[in-house]
Amino acid sequence: MKHLLAKWSHWILAVLTPLGVWGIMGFAFVDAAFFGMPLDPIVAGYAYAAPRRFLLLSVLAAIGSALGSIVIYSIGYKGGEVLLVKRMGQARFNKIQASFERHEFLALMLPSMLPPPTPFKLFVLAAGVAEMRFSHFLAAIFFGRFLRFSLESVLVIYFGPEIVGFFGSVIHHHARLGIAVVAVLALVGWWIWRVRKQNGAGNSNSPASA
Prior knowledge:
By secondary structure, this protein is an all-alpha fold. It contains ten helices and no strands.
């Protein structure tokens, strides 16, 4: 099975690599919709080869991930609860479902920011089971993946491609610390965005803007 997946991965690489920067969207789509690709090294490689395009590359990879995740979301939406409970157990399923009911956006955005071995497809499936609003679903994955790929790209540009393997090892052995760091970064980013939005609304309603 692993040999077959490796052959498919090499075939997909051969097909999508000639597409240039647009190929990264295809890699991300396949990774999210079907089986895992070495997406972080692929994004890192693209960013290292074209550092001035790292934001565009991050956007394209995030779009591909969001669009590919629709496949798994649809499975959950059409009745994936049994599959999800069988895969993770009733207790863990109830916990994830409760987190979606309280903070559905962050419950999906935070896992989307984490690299493997985070079981991200399970969270996508759970979002479908919970019937998460589709626009929020796409936005959560896009912003989470965009932040992840942008951060990876900046680190690779400044420290070299080997930094991806280093951080992957750290997160693998210190998963809770990695999740905590990502959660803090996400909350800080959300707070900055909200402050700017409020300031923009205040400026637009001021007498000077009338």
